[in-house]
Design goal:
about 25% helix; 5-stranded antiparallel β-sheet; about 40% strand; 4-stranded antiparallel β-sheet; alpha+beta; single chain; 17 strands
Length: about 400
């Protein structure tokens, strides 16, 4: 090759290198511009949702204020009083008074349940070990559960509760067991107590079914009055599970906003604030004290956990303000199978987690939870806020 050819080759190579460098630089600039544009669109969408949420919150608060200013309906108050009185009759404290044992039938506990032809039964063994001052309770079996076997409830749990002078002295739960006609439990529970502690003490054994959402449903309870218990004897009890009315008490309210965006298959949940969080009145850590509540928010698909988010803890308040937004990806084909489960907890004096209650919003929910879900789906890209009652 001549020097002229080499010089021409070098010039072409230099031009080609400059063109490639320029093309690469233009491509990098294009990517930066597109990423900035995407970020801007996301910010605009978030701002739009926030505006919708604020408007919905203002409307909901105005409705609440209007309802609070309305005079109370006397007939409604009377109905509430009647319902509360009926509910009180089925509280565990009152069960043993209504169905207490006669003196000639203390060893085998049988209740007169004419409305139940084949009630579920719990077999219990109780005895007292005086040398270590321990009262032992052995849950042996739970029988006749065939009528409770269905698609919703697939497990059961037994809880042992000691109460004296309207106070819970001991409470413990068994493990979860698959529901069947006869469930062998064979779990031991021990309570440290003196012989004098038996007076005025009542032992309650409650049976709970657990559904696919891990919600507990009280099937019934048996109660054993320990006033007449001879602590020198080992006794077997066969107790019919007495149905107990469901706890309809409200443990506070939570304001929740939902927005569904079908184009991006996104569901935005904003937990805004709560009011009058109460919890279990028998818990010494919550009685007449400020609490430290927080929320656990889960997206469920046909009962299966898809995504979970835990909010920050609100310090020493019963009216917490959360203002936290959680975004869920929900495919359009799965919307009718989805639910949002909000568990409400608080941390007690020893930093233990205690449950206040829960809220279910979605296709499997009832009443307000289902209405809120339907309204959100019927009005895409609009935020709707609603107060939900916290229940057990």
């Amino acid at each position: 090759m001549t020097e002229q050819d080499i010089s021409s080759f070098k010039k072409h190579l230099m031009v080609w290198t400059m063109l490639c460098t320029t093309a690469g630089l233009l491509f990098w600039i294009f990517k930066k511009i597109m990423s900035k544009r995407e970020e801007y669109l996301k910010q605009e969408e978030a701002a739009k949702q926030k505006r919708h949420a604020n408007l919905a919150i203002m409307e909901e608060q105005e409705k609440i204020k209007t309802n609070d200013e309305k005079p109370s309906n006397k007939s409604d108050m009377q109905n509430d009083t009647i319902q509360y009185t009926q509910y009180q009759e089925f509280l565990p404290d009152n069960l043993w008074k209504k169905f207490s044992l006669t003196s000639e039938s203390r060893d085998v506990q049988k209740y007169d349940l004419s409305f139940e032809s084949n009630p579920a039964q719990v077999e219990v063994l109780i005895y007292y070990q005086s040398f270590v001052k321990l009262f032992r309770i052995v849950i042996l079996t739970v029988n006749n559960l065939e009528k409770f076997i269905n698609n919703d409830s697939n497990k059961i749990r037994v809880k042992v509760i000691f109460r004296r002078s309207n106070e819970t002295k001991y409470s413990e739960s068994s493990q979860l067991y698959p529901i069947a006609e006869t469930v062998p439990i064979k779990e031991n529970f021990s309570v440290q107590m003196d012989t004098l502690d038996f007076y005025g003490c009542v032992l309650y054994i409650t049976v709970w079914s657990i559904d696919v959402f891990y919600r507990e449903l009280l099937l019934g309870a048996i109660s054993i009055d320990l006033n007449s218990y001879n602590h020198n004897l080992k006794k077997n009890f066969y107790g019919d599970v007495l149905p107990v009315k469901k706890d309809t008490k409200v443990y506070g309210h939570l304001l929740v906003s939902l927005c569904h965006i079908p184009s991006t298959e996104r569901l935005t949940c904003v937990v805004i604030s709560g009011k009058n969080f109460t919890g279990d009145a028998n818990s010494a850590s919550i009685l007449n004290k400020a609490i430290n509540p927080y929320l656990d928010i889960s997206l469920l698909n046909d009962g299966k956990l898809i995504k979970n988010h835990t909010t920050s803890v609100s310090k020493e308040t019963r009216d917490p303000v959360f203002n936290e937004m959680i975004e869920f990806f929900v495919p359009q084909s799965q919307v009718t199978l989805s639910d949002i489960l909000i568990m409400v907890f608080y941390k007690d004096d020893k930093n233990f987690n205690e449950t206040i209650g829960k809220i279910l919003i979605g296709s499997h929910a009832q009443e307000d939870g289902y209405k809120h879900w339907c309204k959100t789906l019927e009005n895409p890209e609009q935020s709707f806020a609603r107060w939900h009652a916290i229940k057990k």
